Amino acid sequence: MARVYPAWRTGIGRSCGYNRNEDASDYLSVEELVAEFVDIVSKNGSLVLNVGPRPGGTIPPEQTERLRAFGRWLEACREAYFESSPWTRAEGATAEGSPVRFTLGADGVLYAMVIGAIPDGVVSIGDLSGSPSHVRLLGFESPLSWSTEGDVLHIALPDDLPEQPAYAFAIRVSTRASRDAVKDERCMRPWILNPNGKPSSRCSLEGAGAL
Q: Which of helix, strand or coil describes residue 183?
């Protein structure tokens, strides 16, 4: 039986609720928030994010700014997370040293999330268990140039690459080996509650984009 990871609970600030003594330096940055989410989901977990409203029910602007930015990033990369599954491995790194996390889409597309800033030129991701037949960068419309060398995928980065906390590459692998390797062991993430109160196993943070 595949191991089910629990829900990770984290606060956007250092306190469990609203703390008027906290300032922007006490909150997770957008980059830290996205990196934590990407890491948790790749390991079959769910992120339970705590925010601290003021006594009147309003959320401090330092928190809403981060939630909105996180929601915009998630909307651009939603296909890598909604209805996704863990891949045969969660972690990796590019040849340039940037951390990578993986998920597997419902249609068998492999998603590789490169966390943080990536160098200009080329990003190289290895050990993909198959021959890529198509590569896209989520949130970027222009086609990418890419090549392979053994089991390493070299992706040529565009000059106008938008700055993002993490870059999600959708990789169509010509074999279904990666899909078949996990179909018997795959488990959905722990049950969470949708805004309507009904349980769901989807990786869903739709509210973040609606703030």
A: helix
> For residues 179 and 71, which has the higher predicted lDDT (pLDDT)?
71
For 162, the domain range is 91-183
Quote the pLDDT of residue 178.
46
CA angle (20 as vertex; 18, 26 as ends), nearest 5: 80
Q: Beta strand pairing status for 199-200 and 192-193?
A: antiparallel
Does residue 188 form part of some domain?
no
- Return the residue matching tokens 């899909």: 179
| Beta bridge mates, 111 | 103, 170
Query: What whole-number percentage of the chain has pLDDT above 70?
Result: 78
Residue 189 lies in a domain: no
Do 74 and 95 fall within a single domain? no
Both tokens of 119, joined, read 């160098």
- The number of C-alpha atoms within 13 Å of 75 and in the hemisphere containing its C-beta is 12
The structure tokens 């869903």 sit at: 204
Token representation of residue 196: 């309507």
> From the centroid of its chain, how far is CA 159?
23
- Work out the mean pLDDT of the chain and round it to a whole number: 79
CA-closest candidate to residue 116, choices 72, 155, 69, 166? 166
Residues 76/39, Cβ–Cβ less than 8 Å: no
Quick one: 146 and 121 in the same domain? Answer: yes
Over residues 28-66, the pLDDT tens digits come to 899 999 999 999 999 998 888 888 888 888 888 888 999
Please list the residues that pair with 135 across neighbouring strands. Answer: 171
pTM of the model: 0.79
